[in-house]
Amino acid sequence: MSYIFQHARLLNPLEDLDLNGTIKVSFTGIIEAVSYNSQTLVVSPEDLVIDLQGQILAPGLFDMHCHFREPGQEYKETLESGAKAAAAGGFTGVALMPNTKPVIDSPLGVAYIRHHSTTLPVDLEVIGAMTVDSKGEHLAPYGKFSSYGVTAVSDDGSAIQNSQIMRLAFEYASNFDLLIIQHCEEQSLTMGGVMNEGLFSTKLGLKGIPDVSEAITLSRDLLLMHYLEKHKLHDPLIRPRYHVAHISTKAALDLVRKAKNEGLQVTCEVTPHHFTLCDEDLFLAKKKGNYIMKPPLSSRENREALLEGLADGTIDVIATDHAPHASHEKECPPDQTAFGIIGLETALGLTITELVEKKVITMYRAIELLSINPRKIMKLKPILFIPGEHANFSIIDPDKVWDITSESLKSKSSNTPFLNRSLKGKARGIFHKGKFVESGNL
User: Fold this and answer.
1) What are the backbone angles phi and psi of residue 316, rounded to the nearest 5°?
2) Residues of the chain with pLDDT > 90: what percent?
3) What is the b/e burial string over 371-396, where b = at least 16 CB atoms within 10 angstroms of the residue's CB?
4) Of the candidates 345, 352, 380, the residue with the CA atom closest to the CA atom of residue 366
5) Is 321 a catalytic site residue?
6) How does pLDDT run across 194-234, given as a tens digit for each residue?
7) Neighbours of 216 (CB within 10 A)
């Protein structure tokens, strides 16, 4: 018995593939055969035929920036509820940031996540803390992380402020080929800030966060990378890898563009809320809590720069920064609300609605941003549509029009500024770990 995914648009940029076809998968989850266009596959009466009617079958989407809150804050999200939200959004894998309670700054935390995720429908990759308790004072045990299969470290939400510690992080991480993921924020400028500093923060009487704080920390880190490259203070065959989390400003994007041209191993991601919204949307919103996040929604000019970065290839990844919060943490005055919004279930729809439909990028490029590139940057196994490979698919209906409602969300939290908005494009389901999971059945 096998699964037959027929009449699909097979879209896999890793193989330069965009053709109509059919994929046959065994009930153990191994690809048995692939046919294209008018080629036919033998179908037996025992096979389960799934007619995709031209819908997209793509390599499983992967979100490299999520917060599932477990352990420590299960009232916001659990591994189980987060995994359901991921599957509903079309993701077959996510990478979890370490700022749980306690912080994942040792292999014990990694083991906890892995032990409790074996039966979940999606893969949970663990990002280790960059420093002990993410306090920016002492490096976490990168060697032990590496031995447990961790491929990236980050103090997300709390950028390392001490330049000497940051230098040591680069040197230590590069010895184990660990990716450094940095939340770029100069905290002496942002302390107490609520939203982007500018006209709208002034009108609302809220303390602003100057957008230059992102570029200042990024600039420091890139200078350190240049220094280490120039002086060869480490093995010349081992080079630091650096990824900018949730980039939000033109100044930071220009620095990334320049660093790439100079040959540094630098990548960056953008969130759907940053390429869709700006600080004016927060100003106009009646309930502002779901528009408060870090980095803050920036100016319209910065948003336009992000769209240019997506179009010209400077931005490598779309990641959600899925950050669940309970209603009481968001339904309060803006200067008291928790930073962050959920995003796993809205990311695909926002990408298609705001980018593909508006011809900022193609669907082919969208799959690169949502699947191929994050897996490559995290050094995860690539997904190929060839016989003998494990089937790992996201099935996407690009024409599906749907409304975002709190009742339809699988996440434990519903803190999103996109509630009651209509989007075009939705995941029909995923096939992973030998199982076909339809979004409507989660």
Assistant:
1) -95, -30
2) 94
3) bbbbbbbbebeebbbeeebebbbbbb
4) 352
5) yes
6) 999 999 999 999 999 999 999 999 999 999 999 998 876 55
7) 17
User: What tokens appear for 50 in the block?
Assistant: 């799934």
Which residues on adjacent β-strands are paired with residue 182?
244
Which domains does the chain show, CATH number per domain?
A: 2-56+389-409+424-441 (2.30.40.10), 60-377 (3.20.20.140)
Contact (CB, 8 A) for 321 and 65:
yes
Task: Give the list of residues 6+ apart from residue 340 with CB closer than 8 angstroms, or none.
Answer: 67, 293, 294, 321, 323, 324, 325, 415
Phi, psi torsion values for 214, nearest 5 degrees: -65, -45
Q: Is the peptide bond before 102 cis (omega within 30 degrees of 0)?
A: yes
Distance CA 315, CA 305 (A): 11
Q: How far apart are CA 428 and CA 416, in angstroms?
A: 21
Sign of the C-alpha dihedral computed for residues 136, 138, 142 and 144 taken in this order: negative
pTM: 0.96
Residue 318: in which H helix or E strand, if any? Answer: strand 317-318
Q: Are the C-beta atoms of residues 59 and 411 closer than 8 Å to each other? A: no
Q: What is the C-alpha separation between 434 and 428, in angstroms, rounded?
A: 17
User: Which residues lie below 8 Å from residue 361, measured CB to CB, with a gap of 6+?
Assistant: 310, 311, 355, 369
Catalytic residue among 123, 155, 321, 397: 321
Measured between its terminal Cα atoms, the distance across the chain in Å is 24
| Whole-number Cα distances in Å, 57 to 37, 242, 317 | 14, 31, 19
Name the amino acid, one letter, at 236.
P
| 242, 180 Cβ separation under 8 angstroms | yes
Express each pLDDT in 73-93 by its tens digit: 999 999 999 999 999 999 999
Look at the alpha carbons of 364, 370, 375, 381 in this order and tell me if their dihedral is positive or negative. negative
Percent pLDDT > 70 in the chain is 99
Q: How large is the average pLDDT for residues 276-297? A: 98
> In whole angstroms, what is the distance from residue 199 CA to residue 16 CA?
46
pLDDT over 70 (residue 189): yes
pLDDT over 70 at 236, yes or no: no
Residue with token string 């528009």: 291
- Reading phi first (left if > 0) and then psi (alpha if -120 to 50, else beta), residue 232 is in left
DSSP class of 28: T
CA dist., res. 160 & res. 148, Å (int): 24
- Closest among 59, 67, 160, 141 to 366, alpha carbons compared: 59
pLDDT at 439 over 70: yes
